[in-house]
Amino acid sequence: MRLSTLTRSTILGSLTLVLAVPALAADNLSPQSVLNMSLQDLTNLEVTSVSKKAEKANEAAAAIFVITQEDIKRSGATNIPDVLRMAPGIDVAQAGAHDWAVTARGFNNQFANKLLVLIDGRTVYNPLFSGVFWQMQDTLLEDIDRIEVIRGPGATQWGANAVNGVINIITKNAKDTEGGLASASAGNLVRTQNGIRYGIKTGNDSYARVYAKYDDDAPEFNVGPGRSGDGWHKDQAGFRSDSKLSNQDSLTFQGDAYKSTESERHVYPQLTAPFSFVNPDNIDGSGANILARWTRNISPVSSTSTQFYLDNAQYKAPYLSYNATTADFDFQHTWTGWDRNEIVWGVGYRLIEDHNGATFLSSLTPAERSMNLYSAFLQDKFTLHPDDLFLTLGSKVENNAFTGYEIQPSARLSWLISNTQMAWSSVSRAVHTPGRSTSDTQFILADLPPGVIFGPGPTQVTVVGNPNLNSEELIAYELGYRIQPTKSISLDLATFYNDYSKIFLAQTGAGTVLAGPVLFLPESAQNINSAYSDGFELSTKIDATQNWQLSGSFSYLNLHIANPAVNVEFTAIGTQPKDTFNIRSTYLFPHGIEMTNSLYYVNGFAVGDISGYYRFDTKLSYEIMKNMEVSLVGQNLLQPQHKEFESFLYQSPVEVGRSVYANMTFKF
Predict the structure, then answer these.
(1) Distance of alpha carbon 466 from alpha carbon 160, whole angstroms
(2) Which tens digits make up the pLDDT trace of 60-93?
């Protein structure tokens, strides 16, 4: 990628600003660190996503990265996908004002289906595509406690579709959000983003909070001149209560409801010249969920967790109409009463009922379907040598509506070399199961001019479901090493080799029909593709001084797909960067002024016309008084606009623009 003189100068100036900050600081700063979490605090963070039980992040036998509330606050991000940009090995690409593609270790597309995403234990992927509609998944960012990001399979604990990674978004206990918070932002692309939350003590050891937020975002930009016409707005509200019922029992009860309206300029296929037409549309989305979790500490060595949630999601676009309701039950028991064994086991049941309306481009047969998922898992952590060598064996067994039984085992070895060094390795099997979009769909993908495929007339390409698909399979091998050579520096290295088989690939099937001048060409998914990938992710954190913190990462991915053609989810399966890095700097000046600078680099796309790009974000905040802060945020400052991803289905090409907004946050 060749950069203009202005861009090179801007990057150099940005890095100079980051590195020159200490020289600008006054000598009379308080000796007490104002970076709320020191490096030692971060390495002692407890996580639950790797083994489904609490363990220190730096001792977890997986490639895990934790994004804390402080990281979120300092990033200046206004949505969850932008927050995830700082995690190594996670590819985040924005395709419009309300569209993101997010995945781990490759295979990114509009319906990326190899990444499992949870919010407080609730699976949030769309059951139609097994991917995430990120514009529908949100919460008040100030209420997030941490985001645990795992690269690599998590199927033994979480089940199918946790193939390349798991993102677990964990919100704060209501006990930690007493009082009020109000936040308001306004800018050129973030036209307005307002949020309010209030928490109270409801009993002797019971707390509750409610929140509401409103977002209104301006359209992004066309590849040529002008705006893309894809603005959107969203309303969301929710609550959470946490109660300690006794010395043994605690109960969490929470829920959310949202409504979204998206504008979009779609390009639809037609069988006459020019074989497509442009139409401005509105897309309506809505949903609600409710979750209850009962945790019981039976004894110091035995505990259980019982969780149930209901989730309804609706999405209505001119080319797609669905309504899906999910009921999910999960029970887990942890036992640590033996000297050399820590056992975690559990069972689960999920029922998904969907109702899909036919449109002029798509239909599902049957239009309504009930899908059952039964699961059980067992995991045992063996102590091979006291205090430093551990072997974790486990497996998840599932029975789903499409392929029946699936077994997903894993083995993880962890070696605590010293108090500051740890090495780990793992081998895992994970699967991505078929869904409604691959088994039951009929979708008109494109109408092509005469002669593009064959025949004297136009060709209509239609994707047709295949009910006889097997699951896609992954065998993953991982090796990692962590070290903290000094109290102020930590390094985390993860390497991997992934072997994929039975990947869904759209192939011309039976049923080709020539009706007059029109050739109707059906394509259906077949388990005929394969791939392998290797790479590494290196991340570091540095407490440069008590008032200056640096962090960054570099990720390399070599993904080789046997046939990098169009897959059944209608998009190229090779759309991911080969190498990425980011560097972030936070510094506290005197008098409550804080600055965070972030530089991101993404490069090496194998498919499409996306060029490598730099992204520079900055946030300057000032604490006016103890409970009031104002800030100025700039995003994508190096270029007026740039392209991050190929167009989504029927979407006009969109580029992401430069954004500047101001924010005020008040606690009361």
Answers:
(1) 19
(2) 999 999 999 999 999 999 999 999 999 999 999 9
